[in-house]
Amino acid sequence: MTAITDLLYSSPTLIIAVDGYSSCGKSTTAKQVAARLGYAYIDTGAMYRAVTLFFLRNGVELDDADGIRRALDSISISFRFDPVTGRNETYLNGDPVEGEIRMLYVANAVSKVSALPQVRQSMVTLQHQMGKKRGIVMDGRDIGTHVFPDAELKVFMTADPLIRAERRQAELLAKGTIVGLNEILENIKKRDHDDTTRAVSPLRRAHDSILLDTSYRTVDEQIEWVIQAARERMTQLKEKISLEIVSA
């Protein structure tokens, strides 16, 4: 009886997939949603950026299948929460790389690296392992369509390209990096094209996702919007579980 009571009164644990275009606020929103819900946060974009950084540092050629396989076999990616900064930090083979993977030279190369079938297969396998315990918020390009197609909540984020470029420029300026707005805008447009036209797991909106346009929403509004959607989904699943128990 205790097990049934627990099912009736506890909140279902969700897998929340957050997909969308670059610089829409996916990572910022997903991190805060995870913190509010007490879930684990997994930044898949950072995973692909970390692989890209490794390839660039080690001169891995994108047409060298054997070299790519050896590189992937030697890569370890992990995330740690830094209580001082309040940020999730990305580690590549034990070294902190959060700052470097956000640099423009990595951003310019990440779409081609992430489009490689070997790279995607390796990262998706790792993402599946990370999601086995559920209670996660994972953001990326193909989480709701490919990595976790059965996720209980799928959010697809979009925003006007110029607004996204302005946000990205502000982020870089805050880190002391000066880049022209037109250069950033062109980079964003190129990434959009590469992400939506790649042969393997292209960026597209899942048919059962909910659309969140962040063009004119604050970060706090974005977070509250997703939190509310998660709570509504939990309520729906709880009601479904209750009906199934009563009908059994």
Automatic annotation (TrEMBL):
<comment type="similarity">
    <text>Belongs to the cytidylate kinase family. Type 1 subfamily.</text>
</comment>
<feature type="binding site">
    <location>
        <begin position="20"/>
        <end position="28"/>
    </location>
    <ligand>
        <name>ATP</name>
    </ligand>
</feature>
<keyword id="KW-0418">Kinase</keyword>
<dbReference type="GO" id="GO:0036430">
    <property type="term" value="F:CMP kinase activity"/>
</dbReference>
<keyword id="KW-0808">Transferase</keyword>
<keyword id="KW-0067">ATP-binding</keyword>
<dbReference type="GO" id="GO:0005737">
    <property type="term" value="C:cytoplasm"/>
</dbReference>
<dbReference type="GO" id="GO:0006220">
    <property type="term" value="P:pyrimidine nucleotide metabolic process"/>
</dbReference>
<protein>
    <recommendedName>
        <fullName>Cytidylate kinase</fullName>
        <ecNumber>2.7.4.25</ecNumber>
    </recommendedName>
</protein>
<dbReference type="InterPro" id="IPR003136">
    <property type="entry name" value="Cytidylate_kin"/>
</dbReference>
<dbReference type="GO" id="GO:0036431">
    <property type="term" value="F:dCMP kinase activity"/>
</dbReference>
<keyword id="KW-0547">Nucleotide-binding</keyword>
<dbReference type="InterPro" id="IPR027417">
    <property type="entry name" value="P-loop_NTPase"/>
</dbReference>
<feature type="domain" description="Cytidylate kinase">
    <location>
        <begin position="16"/>
        <end position="231"/>
    </location>
</feature>
<keyword id="KW-0963">Cytoplasm</keyword>
<dbReference type="InterPro" id="IPR011994">
    <property type="entry name" value="Cytidylate_kinase_dom"/>
</dbReference>
<dbReference type="Pfam" id="PF02224">
    <property type="entry name" value="Cytidylate_kin"/>
</dbReference>
<dbReference type="GO" id="GO:0005524">
    <property type="term" value="F:ATP binding"/>
</dbReference>
